[in-house]
Every structure is written in structure tokens, then in C-alpha cells.
Amino acid sequence: MKKLLVPFILLSMSLFIAACNSDEGSTEETDNETNTESTEETTKSDEMEMKSALLDYQMEIINTVNANDSAIYAFEAAKAKEEDKPSDEEIAKLKTDAEAAAKTVAEDVHALEVPAALDAKNEEIQGALDDLAKSYETRAANLSDEANAEYTESDEQFAAFEEKMAAVYEEAGLTKPSFSADIVD
Length: 185
Known about the structure:
By secondary structure, the chain is an all-alpha fold. It has six helices and no strands.
């Protein structure tokens, strides 16, 4: 009987040791799964933070431009009037105001700071903002008294701004914005 007891005890101990080793392996697997889930959650959180920051920044850009650009559109509307057209002096004053407004918008756009949440896209956004500021600087330099004046260079710079911002939005998984639709004419 003693001879049977020793192999039985050895078998029991080996099963016990094997079971303990199996538990340690599943603990490591659980830790790895938890770490992977945590990393995925962090990545999703970062993506959501970037999307939110982009949308907030879009509104900041629009509000910055709209705060001072109304004089530009007032000048364009006044010179296009066929009835009740303003006098030459009034047009000259509106033009001076429009030039000052366009320069102010350009300065304000240059003063915009890219939020920390968008640091990964800072270079692209800054390049887009430079195009937006140049668009208003060019508009200020080329304002014309002609009723149907075209501002091709300024419009191209604005389009370059929109294209660069669209790329940033699309890379973040957002629909590209139409800044031209949101900036008051």
C-alpha cells in the first residue's frame, strides 16, 4: 500500500504544479489583454480630443476673421450698387476701411495659436493659416474701385488655405470644412 501511496502523492503534486503554472500564464495573458485595451482606449481618447480641438479651432478661426472683415464686404457691396451708389468720397472712405480691415484680419490670423491638442498637426495648420493671412494681405493690397473686380491671387491663397485644412480634417477622420461658407460675405 505504501508503494501505491508514493506514486499517488507524486501524481497529485505534479498536477497541482501544472495547474499553478497554467494560472500564471492566464494572468499574463489577462495583463497583456488589459494593456492592449488600455492602449486602444488611450488612442481613441486622443483621437476624440484632436477632433474636438479641430472643431473648436475651426470656430476660433471663423470668429477671428468675421470679427473684422465686414468692412471689406461693405466696400464690395457699395461699389457694385447701381442705384443709390455712394459718392466717390464715400467709396474712397469705404476702400480705406476695407484695406485696414483686411490688414487687421491678416494680423489677427497670424496671432492665432494652434492649441496643444493639435501639436501633431501644427506645421500643416500653421502653413494653412499663413495662406489665409496672405489672402487678406493680398486683398488689402489689391482692392479695386471697379465694380466687378476679381481678386484671383487672393482667392487662390484662400483656396490653398482651405485645401490644407481639409487635409488635416480628413486625416483626423472628419469631413472637410468649408470655411468660405462660414466666413461672412
